[in-house]
Amino acid sequence: MNDESQALSSGWRIGVGLVLIIGFTILVMLSVRAYDDGPPVPKAVVNAAGETIFTGDDIRAGQRVFLKYGLMENGSIWGHGAYLGPDFSAQYLHTLSLDTRAYLALQTYGIGVKELDAAKRDALNMDVERLLKKNRYDPKTRTLRFTEPEETSYKHQIQMWTRHFSEASVNGGLPVHYIKSARDMTHLTAFFAWTAWASVANRPGRSFSYTSNFPYDPLVGNRPPHAALVTSALSLIALLGGTALILFLFGKFDYLGWKQDTPLPEPRMIPGEATKSQRATIKYFAIVALLFLAQVLIGGATAHQRAEPGSFYGFDLYGLLPTTVLRTWHLQLSIFWIATAFIAGGLMLAVSLGKREPKGQVGGIHFLFWALVVLVGGSLLGELLGVRQMLGNLWSWFGDQGWEYLDLGRAWQVMLVVGLVVWMVLLVRFVKPAYEDPKGRELSILFTIAAGVIPLFYLPAFFFGSNSNFTVADTWRFWIIHLWVEGFFELFVTTMVAVTFFQLGLVSRKSATRVVYLDAILFLGSGVVGTGHHWYWTGQGHINMAFSAIFSAMEVVPLTLLTLDAWDFIKLTRGEDGKAVPHKWAFYFLMAVGFWNFVGAGIFGFLINTPIVSYYEVGTLLTPNHGHAALMGVFGMEAVALMVLGFRQVLTDEQWVRPEKFIRISFWGLNLGLAMMIVGNLFPGGVLQLYDVLQNGYWHARSAAYLDQNFVQTIEWFRLPGDVVFIGAGVVPLAIAALMAYAAGRKRPVES
Description:
Layout: H1 10-37, E1 44-46, E2 52-55, H2 56-68, E3 76-77, E4 80-81, H3 88-109, H4 118-133, E5 137-138, E6 143-145, H5 148-164, H6 182-200, H7 226-253, H8 276-280, H9 282-307, H10 317-320, H11 323-354, H12 361-387, H13 395-398, E7 400-403, E8 406-408, H14 410-435, H15 441-456, H16 470-503, H17 509-530, H18 542-554, H19 556-564, H20 566-571, H21 584-609, H22 611-617, H23 622-650, H24 653-696, H25 698-701, H26 704-707, H27 710-717, H28 719-747
Parallel strand pairs: 1-6
Antiparallel strand pairs: 1-2, 3-4, 5-6, 7-8
Helix pairs in contact: 1-17, 2-6, 3-4, 3-5, 3-6, 5-6, 7-18, 7-19, 7-22, 9-11, 9-23, 9-27, 9-28, 11-12, 11-14, 11-16, 11-23, 12-14, 14-15, 15-16, 16-17, 17-18, 19-21, 21-23, 21-24, 23-24, 23-28, 24-27, 24-28
């Protein structure tokens, strides 16, 4: 029987439904618990005499200072943030421990710590641990009592942090006197003090702190909790069991999803035969290439700070553009260019699904394009003005909200959601005719749903603000970073790939539909709950650690399965006569996605996601090692594949000859440059930094004392060859090809 007339089993739909119901039930439960499990913000912090040292309003004001100056793009809190400056919570905690030791040594022995013998030092360390581990928060009065050494350290650290933000040589690429207001410094120190207290004070009735004893600092008794070891073991069992099950099923059914069914459909997308709307999307891809180029140049300037602190080849770049601005732009541009490529790719494919263009669609595509230009340009300018404190009280609306990856101001976020809704309207208008076709209805509906969840699941970005408890804010923040990006963007891209293969006549409609369902079951089945692996040390309870460790480990299983089906995927790039299909370079980039998915998301992701490794590793170079390999290697390569697909669809064979030469160079330059970046710098640098955490404590591995060492800076210089290849042989040729293709596409006569 013809494959097109065969209905897909309802078990696929039931399977996706069960996965989503179970996954979101657990994830919502864990997210809601953050409101109760997060460390409390006291109404007042008082001394032994009951006098107020600082208030809860001061703590919240300090968090706002932290955000409005963009400090999460310089250093981190509880391991989350940037890696140029220190982990502020860890540094405050360690300084508190030293101040407490000095105070107790004088009170107990009448001499300094250095003058004590080994036995007395050990006894003193135990006293420090007992003093700081005791939780003196009274939930009835909502007051937190500081001991005298804690109060003394707080006052001392106001001066210490004032000096830190005044000295460009140690502050991770910030201008001299970055924070000038003494009031802001007092509030900021109060916020740091609260984060340090939550890191060390035991939860009521527990033997570990609110952050599960993170960061690692033996001087205060912060060591990994037993739960980290137990859940790590369970995650390994889940990985092995899940892999065994999936290999069994793979052997039984002998396909992942790209099973060749016959007869195959006739191609619906012929290169050079583009519609008006498809031709209108190529300007999106031209802008994507330019945004990509800007992003990597800014990224190179940001990374240089670690190799040559405070200087950019002798020029005071960071005095003009602080690393808080540069890293914000680097992250925001990466999201912008990748998301824009996905938006354009969705529009291009939606036309071919519906097979006709409703009136006014081209105008809508033009309108959305200019709205995106305003959004990108306005938000980037606003982030610069906001961090420079030039927007007054409007900093969080039109400037920089300060949350890593979600830096753009609230007004720009609203504009982004509105733009995504407009995009959805355009997609639905394109695809609507396909809903009336019984054969094509299911794949078209899946395409629409996969696109529709993108604006829907961006809404958690509005569930928190600058005054939210940091634990609660970080919970919702990772709904965007992990679930929105790694979950539903991944699902939409897989759907676009399936639709592309069907439109090119490489797979049947049934196979394409089955792949979408299979991807949803495999990736969302583990990835939804796996979101919680980001919350191990941010104030969540151990129930989150248990669920997240197990499900996060299983995220590797579908990535392993993809490698088993790689040859079938390669065969799809060849026609029945063995010749390569016209869109071969788009497919080559998709093959690169498979490789980096397994290496970046699979190997490097699993390396840092087990709780016991994450406890020591989070916030070291092993995190951006995973991030670069996964974000660029997976989503970046997917975006480039869509760009190449779009240009090839618009251009004739003759017009494609010149751009193709640069695309070929770009393919090898991007992949080789990314590999060199990882092998030469990020992975070995991360391993050495992890070793320093184990040897000296987390605070030290994140401090200038470690980063300014010669061998550390030498490793940072080893990144330069990879950056040069990635930018010079990867991104620049891609930008040239994009501009060539755009110019050629504009000359092409319009066809309907």
